[in-house]
Amino acid sequence: MKDYLVRGIVESKNCRVFACQTTNLLEEARAKHGLWPTASAALGRVMSATLMMGAMNKNNEKMTITINGGGPIGTILATTHSDGKIKAFVANPEVHYTYNDTGKLAVGVAVGKEGSLQVIKDMGLKEPFVGTVPLQSGEIGDDFSYYFMASEQIPSVVSVGVLVNDTNEILSSGGFIIQLLPNATDEDIQFIEERMKDFPPVSALIHEGKTPEDILKVIFEDVEILATQDLFFECDCSKDKMATALMTVGKDEIQAMIDEDHGCEMKCQFCNEKYQFNEDDLNEILKEID
Ligand SMILES: [Zn+2]
After folding, report:
1. Domain extent for 42
2. What CATH number did the domain enclosing 20 receive?
3. Residue 253 CB coordination number (10 Å)
4. Cβ atoms of residues 27 and 40 within 8 Å
5. Which of 48, 104, 143, 147 is the most exposed place for a label (fewest CB within 10 A)?
6. Which CATH number does the domain housing residue 276 bear?
7. Which pLDDT value is given to residue 125?
8. Are residues 74 and 31 in the same domain?
9. 239 C-alpha vs ligand 1 centroid, how far in Å?
10. What is the pLDDT of residue 179?
C-alpha cells in the first residue's frame, strides 16, 4: 500500500485531525542511510510528524525540523516543502537501544532529552518563522505535542510510531495528530482524553492493515475527511548543487583537492548519493569562483 496522509475535521468535538502512513518512505530512508532499528524508529517518527505539520500549512512553505537531544543519535533533521515530499537524516544511523522491561525500541534513549526541537518555516517572503522548545522525553510524539502547545498555543495529541522486524526492515510507520480548535469545550477535551486511554500503538494499527482514515474513525466515528496527499522520500540534490556547495569551501581548499587528491567525492547527507568531481570539474569550479 502506498504512503499517504489525510486531513480531516470532527465538528462534534471541535478538533481537526491528521493521520498518515509512512512505511514505504521510511523503508527507503532506512536502505539509503543504513539505519539500525532504533534510528529507524526515531527518524520515522520525526518524518511522520513533519509531514503532518506540513499538511497544516496553507501554502507550500519550506519547513525544517531539527532535533538534538544530546543522545547517541546526534542531530535529526527533516525538510519538506509541505508537498508530501520529505528528505531527512540522522547524524549517527548505527544506533540501537531497547528498553529492558518492554523490549520496545528506546527512541528516548537514542535521542536524549537534553536539548531542543526547532521548527523553521520559510515563507520565502520575509524573515522565516523560528520556534524552539526544550525536548520533553526525546520520544518525539511528546516533544511535538509540547511544541504545538508552547510555541503555537494549540493543545494537541501527537502519536507517532514505527515497527521494525528481526532483519531491520520497516513493518509499519505512521501516526496521527488531534488539535483542538479555539471553540473546544471541556467535554471535548474529556472525550479525547478518554479515547486516548489505553489506545493501541499507532504502529500496531498500521501493521494490522488499518489505513489513516480507519485510525481516525477508531477515535472519532463522525470524522470528516477533507483531503488526502501522497507521501514520498525524495531528495532534490544534484551535481550542480554540490558544485555550488563546493564553491563555499574556498579556492585554496579546492586547489589542494586538485594537487593532492586529483579530485573529490561529495556525499549528500540527506540521501547518501555520492558525486564525483575530477580535476576538470574542480578547475571549472575554480573558474566559476573567479
Ligand atoms: Zn540527496
Report:
1. 4-233
2. 3.55.30.10
3. 11
4. no
5. 104
6. 3.90.1280.10
7. 75
8. yes
9. 10
10. 98
Low-confidence ranges of the chain (pLDDT < 70): none
Looking at residue 58, its pLDDT comes to: 74
Q: Give me the pLDDT at residue 105, please.
A: 93
Of 208, 233, 258, the one marking the end of a domain is 233
**What's the CA-to-centroid distance between 79 and ligand 1, angstroms?**
12
Gap from CA of 87 to ligand 1 centroid (Å): 8
Q: Who surrounds ion ligand 1 at CB < 5 A?
A: 235, 237, 268, 270-271, 273
Ligand 1 center from residue 237 Cα (angstroms): 4
Radius of gyration of the chain (CA): 21
Same domain, 257 and 229: no
Q: How far is the CA of 242 from the centre of ligand 1 (A)?
A: 9
**What's 121-169 look like in SS3?**
EECCCCCCEEEEEECCCCCCHHHHHHHHHHHHCCCEEEEEEEEECCCCC
